[in-house]
Amino acid sequence: MSWQETTITMVSIVFGMALVIVVVLQLSKIISTVASARRERVLRDLAVELRAGQEHLSAEVAEIRRIVEETGRRVREVDY
After folding, report:
1. Could you report the per-residue pLDDT of 63-76, keeping only the tens digit for each?
2. How confident is the model at residue 22 (pLDDT cuts 50, 70, 90)?
C-alpha cells in the first residue's frame, strides 16, 4: 500500500467514525424526546384521573354532609 492509499483509508475511517458518532447522538436525542413525550402523556393521564377522583370525593363528602345534617335534624326532632 502506498502512503496515498494509507492516507485515504485513515481519512475514510475517521469520517466513518464521525458519522457513527453523529448517528448515535441523533438517536439518543430522538429516544430522549420520545421518553419525554411519554412522561408528559402519563402525567396528563394521571392529572385527569386525579381530577376525576377529586370530583368523586367531593360528591361523597357532599353526600356525607347531607346525611349528617339530616341525622342532626332527626335528633333535634326527637329531642323536642
Report:
1. 999 999 999 888 88
2. very high
Rounded distance, CA 28 to CA 49, Å? 31
How far apart are the C-alpha atoms of 47 and 3, rounded to whole Å?
66
In the chain, how long is the greatest CA-to-CA distance?
Answer: 116
**Sign, Cα dihedral of 11, 12, 17, 20:** positive
The alpha carbon of 29 is separated from its chain's Cα centroid by a whole number of angstroms, namely 17
pTM (two decimals) = 0.53
Q: How far apart are CA 47 and CA 41, in angstroms?
A: 10
Q: For residue 23, what is the DSSP state?
A: H
Amino acid, res. 46: L
Q: Would you give the distance in Å from CA 13 to the centre of its chain?
A: 41
Q: What is the dihedral of CA 74, 75, 76, 80, to 10 degrees?
A: 100
